[in-house]
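subagent[fold] <- orchestrator: predict structure for attached chain, return tokens only, no commentary.
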Amino acid sequence: MENYAHSKEAFLRSFLDLPNGIPSHDTFNRVFSNIDSEQFETCFIEWVSTLADLQPREIIAIDGETIKGAKSGGKKSPVHMVSAWANENNLVLRQVKVSNKSNEITAIPKLLEVLALKDTVVTIDAMGCQTNIAKEIIKKDADYILAVKGNQEQLYQDIKDEFRFAKNVSVDLLESLDHGRIETRKCSIITNFQFIENTDKWKNLKTIIRIESIREFKNSEKPKEQAVRYYISSLKAEPQDFQKAIRSHWNIENKLHWTLDVAFSEDASRKRANNASQNFSILNKIALNLLKNEKTSKIGVKGRRLKAGWDNHYLIKVLNLIKV
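subagent[fold] -> orchestrator:
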């Protein structure tokens, strides 16, 4: 930051007062370590709310990521962020810092609490398959699609039994070819339950879903990959709707986590003092939201970021996306 500011000092002085010149790298570090992360997060949420225009049934994916470089003494990273991603808007809506992945269960309700989710569909992996989380989503006038695994052992077994014996199952089959891979996805849904116990525990539960996927590799001896996944939902919809919604959930991995790692080198970040890691994570997400929604440049996020660093006019164009 210090080196960049020195190289762009004339440009920065065109809109900043710098009576003492460019701050040192120690000053940058000290400031970002001491900014109140909760207040900074509040400002971020208020800013995003001016950009986001959530559509009916828009997928809001919630997932966690670990900043792997933020560790000391050989210990595991103490920085784990849980984020909410709006699929159609291409925006990060909010993040919450937790001490480790297991604490996502307590972080997700905090995330939901401050988000405006009316008429959207919230998707979460198996860690978020909790009765209180389902209840909180319904309370926000939204719907949920929650992955079910062994952490909900009884529910998981009941769903398997339901598909084993059910006679009235709706099915959608989807085949795709991409980069030498042939993927077949079969989505089956049941809305009339017989074997699921205590359905009232899961607020507004209407549908159970099974996704069976087979991935084969052309011109390769690699064996085909098969997987079966189960979900519960408060939605009543067609199998093809669930196919699309469940696939959309993984955009948070591809468009957020992967992009932050590749374009922003977030996994390599060593910032860990006080609030530095969380505050820099918010900065990265502000930059990502701006760059993803700058549509005039037909290059990737990494290229747009580089161009904004080189080209003052392009940087101004990116920053002007902020609505006042």
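orchestrator: received. Logging for downstream: Residues 276-292 form the longest helix (17 residues). The radius of gyration is 22 Å.
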